[in-house]
Write a structure and sequence with these properties.
about 250 residues; about 0% strand; 9 helices; disordered C terminus; single chain; mainly alpha
Amino acid sequence: MIDAAVKALSQMLSPPMRSILYRSIGLSLVLITVLAIGLQRALSWLATAGEGWAEAMLGPGSHGALEVLTWIISIAAGFGVVFGGIMLMPAITSLIASLFVDDVADLVEREHYPAERPGVALPFGIAIAEGLKAAGLTILVYLIALPFVFLAGAGFVIFFIATAWLLGREYFELAAMRFRPPAEAKAMRRDNAVTVFTAGLIIAAFVTIPIVNLATPLFGMAFMVHLHKRLSGPRPELIEPSPERRLRSL
C-alpha cells in the first residue's frame, strides 16, 4: 500500500499529469470560492435581518448593543466560512474526481501497467452521478458529526475517520468501475473494506494539508488504481504474450 502511495505521488508532477493537475486545482478553487461567497452572503443577510428583528422587539435603545453583537457575529461568520470550506474540501474533491477519473486512470495504467488491458472509461452520466452521491453523503456525514467538534476535540477525530471512509469508498469504486459493473465494484469494496479504509486514511491525511489538498483528486484516483490492481490479483488473461513466448508458440 505504501508503494502504491509513493507511485501515485511520484506521478502527480509528471508532465502528462500536470495539465490535469492544473485543471483540477482551478475547478476546485472556483467551487470553493463560489461556496464561500454564497455562505458569507447568506450569513451576512441573516445577521442583518436578525438585528432588525431584535431591534423591533427590544426598542431603539438596544441599537448600539445590537450593532456590536452583529459585528461579533460577522467576525464569527467569517471564521465559519473558512472552517466550512475546509470541512467541505472532501466533498468538493469527490465531485472533481468524477470529472477526471478516466484521465488520471489512463495515465497510471499506461505508465505502470502497459501490458494489461486498459480500463473502460465511465459514461459521463454515471461518473457525475457517483460524484454527486459521494459529495452529498460527505456533507450528510459531516453534518451528523459536527456537534462532536465541541467534545474536547473528539469531533476532529470523527471527521478524520469519516473522511477516510468516504474518500476511500469513492476513489476505490471509481477505479474499480473501469473494469467492473457498478454493483460488482461496490461488492469488491465491501469485501476489502479494511484495506480500502486503511488506504482512505492515507488520502484523508493528504486532504488535511492546506493547498496540497487541492491535488487530492489526482492522488486519490492514482492511488486507488494501484490498489485495485493489487486486490484484483494475478490476471494472466490480460497479459500480452512476450516476444519470446510468441516465438516459442510459432
